[in-house]
Amino acid sequence: MPGLRRDRLLTLLLLGALFSADLYFHLWPRVQRQLRPRERPPGCPCSRRASSPAPAPAAASRVPDAVAHNFSRAGPEAEHPKGGRRGPRSKLQALFAHSLYHVLEEPPLLGPEDSLLASQEALRYYRRKVARWNRRQKMYREQFNLTSLDPPLQLRPEASWVQFHLGINSHGLYSRSSPVVSKLLHDMRHFPTVSADYSQDEKALLGACDCTQLVKPSGVHLKLVLRFSDFGKAMFKPMRILDFRRVPPTVGRIMNVTKEILEVTKNEILQSVFFVSPANNVCFFAKCPYMCKTEYAVCGNPHLLEGSLSAFLPSLNLAPRISVPSPWIRSYSLSGKEEWELNPLYCDTVKQIYPYNSSNRLLNIIDMAIFDFLIGNMDRHHYEMFTKFGDDGFLIHLDNARGFGRHSHDEISILAPLSQCCMIKKKTLSHLQLLAQAEYRLSDVMRESLLEDQLSPVLTEPHLLALDRRLQVILHTVEDCVEAHGEQNVIADDPVQQWAPDSGQANLTS
Question: CA angle 178-183-189, nearest 5°?
Fold first, then answer.
């Protein structure tokens, strides 16, 4: 009898702990958000009341005056409000109206060879996929004697995801002022889902996985593929300011995990991992025979779950991609280090290796390192490219889930490609200089760009201010390179300009 009472006590303690954890991590943050005063962020273009100016980044005061003068403010001149004239209400609109965002692309698009997809071939391919989907749905309903009033899906060539795919070209995933992106983000936010399934990488690991690599207690690494009623697809995970245009369009959405995932999935394994927590929240987790347990689950509240949706790229059958290990891949080991982590002259070796010795590839990797440093993403193992565009094609910035982690820490090693190679595109540097100016401050335009997202505010204020601080670190790194090697050897005017030996001091007056 004492043993039985002890078991009951342990069971009650366990249930109490689970309930407390659910209350702390899910219910209490919601209550805090409801109780928090609804204030518009500083610089909000919609606010009718005068707001106090945004505080200057803490790190800016630590940057030497020469650096602040030469790079933070030496970019393209902006128009300052003078006299009694008012400046633009929207910093984001002012940024995109700047001449930097209206220069012609280099090299210019010449014709069909610069487009990723041939439109007619792609439409035929998608029509076959829609027909196959409808046949499978019909067979599934017949097998289980199900009735449905939903009509078969139709392919609409004007659908936003179709136009997004057809618009990919050798310059990027979309054009600067593409209306398709806004439409695609709207559709991903509002269209109902018709199916949900695990992603291909999780399917490959199913049955033999270490779930510590798939899903963490935070749940951000549990990925699902959702299909919408217009036949578009997106990756569900629990913009364009730098003008790179290499990240697939992504939007925040509040999902009903019961109606929009559980009730539309036909994957029995995914169905089997749904459960109701002691706090009556609907939860699910990754499935494998070893370490996947309910404590790694993601939970709705009770059904609603915040997440991100990233648009799918064209099928590999239509647009083959290659995945290339990064020359600056991390060791992820305490027992040994990669060469770049030990040798500050490592880039001299990279410059001798194909394709980094004869193409735009190295400059593109430096662009990607700058992007990763700004968001704090250390997890860049590989990069992907469309094979059609060859060695000079742009790098696709996929899988950025590890970004915006610790706002208080700047991982300088992410900038190793820049600091070791001392090369940067003139176009990239011009955009960074512009975003360091008060009129177009990076934190301000990022804050404004996220206002319309369903999950706004997406980033906390410390994360936004970290962008300004990290931007100063990048500009300081470029300044050091210019002082060591000369401006003409660091700043690449031509997309394929190669690094040359030190040929003099920097010329900072131009």
Answer: 140
